[in-house]
Amino acid sequence: MKLRRRGFLLMVVSLILTVILAGCSSNGSAPTETGESPQASEDGKLNPVTLKIMFPGDPPAGWEEVKAEMESRLAGTLNVKLNVVFIPWTDVLQKRQVALSSAEDYDLIWDNNPVQNMAAGLYEPLDELVEKYGPDIKANRSAELMEANKVNGKLYAVPLEVNFIRPWTFVIRKDIREQLGVEPIKSYDELIEFMYLVKEKVPEITPFIPNGTEHIGLRLANMLDPTANLAAVLNYPGLYTKGNDGKVYNIFDNMDPMIMKNFEQYHKLYQDGILAKDALTLKNAEFAKGKAAVSTFFDFGVNLNTRTALEKSVPGASAEAFSLYDSGMKLSSTYKAGNFIAVPVVSKNKERAIQFLNWLNQKDNYDLLAYGIKGKNWEDAGEGLYKPIQDNPYAGVPFAWGWNPKLDRIDASLPEDVIALNKWQRDPSNFTTDILTGFTFNPSPVANEVAQLSNAGVEFYNPIVMGLVEPNEGLAKFKEKAYDNVKKVQAEYQKQLDEYLAGKNQ
Predict the structure, then answer these.
(1) Which CATH superfamily is domain 7-164+336-415 in?
(2) Pfam families under this entry (predicted)?
């Protein structure tokens, strides 16, 4: 990606390059300027290293056994031990920033939105390191994925992604559907009818608990009319793009009818008791506890974690998926990753960190990380497929340090249509290139406005999306508090996008 380097952006990039490019200068035999230890001892063997890695969430059951096997394999190759620090999802964003700002000694850090940390000079540029030590990192990621996730033509974090869109699905209590005599859900209208029937016939369970605002609002509006190509602008409430026209819109001056229709419908669902009264604070984890008949997840199909947790919580319960996607769609993609793994500039083990990531991008090692012990946790089910062993499944954690579309397997126990959707979303040729591909917004010039808009979004915008307030009344309050900030962020985003597109067309 080649952003035009001028104005503020030039200063940011220059600062990054001045401060941290020296970290890539190690010749593998002497300490680097950041204090990195020599790669090898005099006998040519790699010196032992412990890599400290920040990971989101909780360790999966069986993690210690998988880690022990990883370290056993590494002992004969890279001579690496692993200090993996799992941070609960509720705390990971805050603790990541504290660790980075205090120069804590991490070697690898998961990041879902690394742009600001890149701009602040907190992450090491990785082009030279990946070129030298990461052939498998590159081989397992398409050119579209690698290029679209660079900033100013440089790679600051390895993109972790298996999809060229951000898929999501409705997950339904199959046992309740069958109990009520309802045929498999085939349309969104049928899904809504099922929710109302649950409220009537199974009042002890909440009909619908979506995963917060993630899969409704703009995201749902787009899926109900895919030709509109509606998309939220990052996490900036009130801003969106449509029609792949290179323009940024706001919901105050240019409300799209499908977005408003969605707001109105969810207000009715809330009033009618289809949505939980505390919908703003509940997430899709409630589904696995048996407390909801329908929820939403970032998957096609029902993931292994959810299936096993639900069956444990509610004996006899089962789940199935209903998706608004189909493999005949020709959607656009920016090829942006949803997860990244970065090397902090303070790491003393930069080379070994990239060597380790490359090791994870080798088939047998990736299988271990993702699916556990072969023969104990999983079985090979053919090219690109695996079958969890039901009595001892391992819900792996590759999305935060190894995820790639070439090595990742699909659960063969999923329905055929779900397997087909997963294969479809992993092929870049199934998508058209979005006009925003390669563009990365630098929020620094409007950092104060972004912070204020984020706060206003939590207080005023999220309740609109979740249906808690009448849309027109909620929008009026949100506009009163956030309009100026929305306009300033919109203007800066449009300015940078125009400059990017102009440079791209030269």
Answers:
(1) Periplasmic binding protein-like II (3.40.190.10)
(2) DUF3502, SBP_bac_1
Written as six digits, the tokens of 376 are 């104990």
Q: SS3 sequence, 472-487?
A: HHHHHHHHHHHHHHHH
Q: Does the pLDDT at position 96 exceed 50?
A: yes
CB 347 within 8 Å of CB 372? no
What are the Cα distances from residue 233, in Å, to 163, 436, 489? 19, 11, 10
Distance CA 197, CA 180 (A): 8
- Could you tell me the residue ranges of all domains in the chain? 7-164+336-415, 168-211+282-324, 213-280+441-506
d(C-alpha 505, C-alpha 460), whole Å? 39
- Round to the nearest angstrom and report the end-to-end CA distance of the chain: 14
Percent of the chain whose pLDDT exceeds 70: 91
Angle at 137 (CA atoms; ends 135, 140), nearest 5 degrees: 105
Look at the block and give the residue holding tokens 């509720």.
90
User: CA 262 to CA 267: how far, in whole Å?
Assistant: 9
Topology of 168-211+282-324 in CATH? D-Maltodextrin-Binding Protein; domain 2 (3.40.190)
Long-range contacts of 310-314 (CB under 8 A, 24+ apart): 313/288, 313/289, 314/290
Average pLDDT over residues 206-234: 91
What is the value of pTM for the model shown?
Answer: 0.78
pLDDT of 487-505, one tens digit each? 999 999 999 999 999 988 7
